[in-house]
């Protein structure tokens, strides 16, 4: 709150100074006096005192939160849900605190995948050197040897990692709606092998050295005249610029650089890599895919790049509010036709679950996920997706029996 008041005060000062400068020569002395007053205030100390250090606990217990028996994140002492605005008028600090908690949540979900779902962590690239950056996926023990069926889970883009649909849901709602764990548990019960992709783990961050942070002046592409003008900037102007930089970022964070993971530097690359090294080598006769948001785009790219293999191995694909675009991704007619027959997109909509939704794109049928919230589409369509896979499997098994249309599926869903 103090920072906000100070900022308003100085805003008024600068406005007054600007108004004074518009006056005659007699007003120059007043302007000089105001500048002198401003220079005497120790702004550095004020800023440091207002924003607490950007240092946060590295455990849920340190944050004084835990997941209750319903999978809801609650404060250990008060039982209240997570509060984002922990410190009033310190949005940057609150955001950093939220991100720190998010990193702990990611590790917590990884533990659940291994301990509750009994999945194993497998590193990629498979031939990575010890010193090379690498990522990982999660697989069930029978993922590559299950002769019957295999389920692939692909989340959207952003901060979510393997096993998550939406970090916001995990923190503000519960583990069931925000993670892939309900899918994994039910799939295991129904005899599926499981592979959980990790498409957003594309690089590692390392701190820049001083040499990398401060490139030599000669390395700049700026014209010599511009450099010379910079050198002639008065000291008081530089001071003001430094103040504004400190106000914008009072605690300067460490500068980092990204080192991308070989052959997994993007969600699309990751999906293709996992296909080539794992999915294509599995024994399963039927591969089923659940892909949310950008995960749908990654699947379509995989389909384009490995068209014949995907058509021969994948039985059905459930997309949830997918952001793919067959035109922008230049999917050919054969790919579009295959998607119309084997894919269904559960989209955010105010219509009841499984109600047909019109689409301008000639790719796959779209039905309502029963929610208007993008991040909830995977959870709300959960039962329908398993029915969709079951019917696709039945249609394939019963040779000569045509696959059910999306309309007949919707009618059956509403009867259940």
UniProtKB/TrEMBL annotation:
Basic and acidic residues composition bias: residue spans: 223-236
Superkingdom classification of source: Eukaryota
Residue stretches spanning the membrane: none
A Pfam family hit: Arb2
GO biological process: neural crest cell development; regulation of alternative mRNA splicing, via spliceosome; regulatory ncRNA-mediated heterochromatin formation
InterPro entries the UniProt entry points to: AB_hydrolase_fold (IPR029058), Arb2 (IPR048263), Arb2_dom (IPR053858)
Keyword Signal attached: yes
Endpoints of the signal sequence: 1-20
Chain positions covered by the region annotation Disordered: 208-247, 397-416
Positions in coiled-coil regions: none
Ranges where the Arb2 domain occurs: 56-353
Single GO molecular function: siRNA binding
Gene Ontology cellular component annotations, sorted alphabetically: endoplasmic reticulum; nucleus
Alphabetized SUPFAM superfamilies for the sequence: alpha/beta-Hydrolases
Keywords, alphabetical: Signal
Name under which the protein is recorded: ARB2 cotranscriptional regulator A
Organism: Naja naja (Indian cobra)
Encoding gene, per UniProt annotation: ARB2A
